[in-house]
Amino acid sequence: MSNQEEQLSALNDIRKMMDRSSRFISLSGLSGVFAGITALGGAYFADRELRAYANRDLETAYFDMSAEFNLIKIAILVLIIALLGGMLFTYRQSKKKNLPIWDKTAKNLLINLAIPLIAGGLFIIALLMVHSNAYGLIAPSCLVFYGLALVNASKYTYSDIRFLGICEIILGLIAMFYIGYGLYFWAIGFGILHILYGLVMYFKYERAK
Fold it and tell me: What is the 3-state secondary structure (H, E, C) of 52-100?
């Protein structure tokens, strides 16, 4: 190996080290696929609950709050399962690459992801408290703020996350013009887009390694 080749190899190693220190690269594409499948399952059960609610007698439905509680339980269950699955796949990926699962980069990623998510959550809560008939805006708001969170956090991980975030924002804005179909847009954004993103990430960064 010539001296020039050795220098290029050393520079390449340095670049890889700097890349690892500045970006969280333990994200697994399989976690995206798992989250997408979980979201589609949640959307299915939520759709069943909404259809059952719509078929009830109006007088009974007015006093029956069980539908709202069931939807909340479905949402919480989907969130917990998706988070646990994401943590499991991320932990496995970090062990495979022999990288720490929690460091300064992971902390910066979490903070930048959390700020828009918390803001979006508070926005939705305030929206529902002030406007009791604003349920149709929940799904578009979730998609837009989630997309903003991904774009904001993308500088600390793979750049592919930024593209996913932009797609979520666009989908949320489109959903604003189709109030009443929020669950379908929600299923596309959190379900199908996550599965497609996860597959791309898996074949791009994991399968070839």
Answer: HHHCCCHHHHHHCCHHHHHHHHHHHHHHHHHHHHHHHHHHHHHHHCCCC
Burial class of residue 161, CB neighbours in 10 A (0-12, 13-18, 19+) = buried
Dihedral-angle region of residue 75 (phi above 0 means left; psi in -120 to 50 means alpha; beta otherwise): alpha
The structure's pTM equals 0.79
180: left (phi over 0), alpha (psi -120 to 50) or beta: left
Residue with tokens 């919480």, as numbered in its chain:
76
Determine phi and psi for 177, rounding to 5 degrees. Answer: -95, 0
- Dihedral of alpha carbons 124, 42, 76, 103, sign: negative
CA 117 to chain centre: 10
Q: Where are the domains of the chain?
A: 26-206
CA distance 88 to 65: 35
Asked whether residue 64 carries a pLDDT value surpassing 60, the answer given is: no
